[in-house]
Amino acid sequence: MIVPVWFARKQRIVAMISQHRDGEMVARLVQKLGYDTVRGSSTRGGTGAALQMIERLKNGQVGAMICDGPKGPIYKMKPGTPYLAIQSGADVIPATFAAKSCWTFRSWDRFTVPKPFSRVFLLWGDPIPFPGENTDVNEFSQQLEAALNDLMKQAEQLAVDNK
């Protein structure tokens, strides 16, 4: 999360961030980096946040969110991202990173922080076009999950190959 957030700073991207206590710290940080925020997640305030995000996306703003939700499981796409894309008519651009040397937390999401001076590989996938209003959310979710996981494998391979 840290690498793409820093890279895309000051671009008026709107980030969806949870209303939980840890989300408050993240929200303050990303706002200082030039992001707009909507607050909510699947466990608290999700409907309001989704409606705000859909409005922002329809108005041309770029949205950002973590796709495996606030509780995981890791690498499993939750329906939020595909639902928002379908409702707003937005394309989805997968993004991920890997670092040659990093700290990995023992949390469910294996939160990763690159070590100082480590080489980091930040990858953006090809845009996945808006699939149409009548698209099945679960099918689109599987397509997005596969694209993101493939991209993640590419980033991890780059980190391994460049050691």
Contiguous uncertain segments of 5+ residues: none
Question: What's the tally of helices?
Answer: 5
Question: What's the quaternary structure here?
Answer: single chain
- CA-atom Rg in angstroms: 16 Å
Major β-sheet, in short? Answer: 3 strands, parallel
Helical residue percent? 25-40%
Cα end-to-end separation: 22 Å
In total, how many beta strands?
A: 7
Global outline: globular
Strand content: 15-25%
3D architecture notes:
This protein has one domain. Helices cover 40% and strands 16% of the residues. The protein has a 3-stranded parallel beta sheet with strand order 2-1-3, sandwiched between helices. A two-stranded antiparallel sheet has the order 4-7. A two-stranded antiparallel sheet has the order 5-6. Helix 3 crosses helix 4 and helix 4 packs across helix 5.
Topology:
Elements: H1 2-7, E1 14-17, H2 21-32, E2 36-39, H3 46-58, E3 63-64, H4 80-88, E4 95-99, E5 102-104, E6 112-114, E7 120-124, H5 137-161
Parallel strand pairs: 1-2, 1-3
Antiparallel strand pairs: 4-7, 5-6
Write a concise keyword list for the protein shown above.
single chain, 163 residues, alpha/beta, three-stranded parallel beta sheet, globular
Please give a quick description of this structure.
The chain is α/β, with parallel strands linked by helices. It contains 5 helices and 7 strands.
